[in-house]
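Researcher: Please predict.
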Amino acid sequence: MKCFIFERNPAAFHDICGSDPLRDLISHLKNSGVKEIFCDSEEIHEGVVSCDFESVKAELGSEWLAAYSGSLTRQSPIDLRRFSRTLGADVTVSMACSSKPWERTTILTDASGLIVKVENNPPPENAETNLCFSGLVWVAKEDFNPLHPLEGKVHALHLPGYWRCPDSRENYLLAIHNVLCREVLPWPHLPLPEKGVVLNSTIPEDTIVRGTLWVGKKCTIGSGCILENCVILDNSEVGENSNLRNCLILAGTRISRNTVQQDKYLSFLGDDNGYKD
């Protein structure tokens, strides 16, 4: 199987537990049996040929996989190929469930899997489905247009397996939580301890850790803190006796002592959506 990866603009937060979506996608494709990978990224990755699509279009052959970077996925390109060949489809795209389909490109199909409606960022009150395009395309036609992969007579398949697009702070925090909880396996980029706690800076012995925790480099954590399901990015400082749950602390943020942030869902500390001292 050959694959061409089309790199999407990297999100504001792309460093995820020692990796990034593009690097992880390459690893996943190799683990899935993809033998030859081309990519239009300027970055150098082992075993990947950096080039533009037109220069290798003929080399890809009559059947190949298109992959769009930007997401963490464990969906199987083999299953996508099998489904597409069974249907005799020219183009088959992958779908995944999204908790916020109004932020995605949603897809409706008929009973055979043929796409009947595509909508970009549908209004929340009008969203007809939570199934969205998840970035894999099996191509069996010569005139495939990578800029518009969902146009024309295209089929779609809801593939099982993990998928999340960390393109917002909420999804970024959740993606790190998923990785630390070992929901995204394999994760070859970093050894993951069973307890889901990764410390790149020293924390006091009296720190109470609940759930998952990622502490970046050159961070300072005061004594007496309680940290639950938190991501603390590089060069941040958390004041003593702070009690934080479900928090993403942006890089370089200073959190005042005795801060309590116990939202049920998610909090972002360090800019207009949060606060810093």
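Model: The two ends are 53 Å apart (CA to CA).
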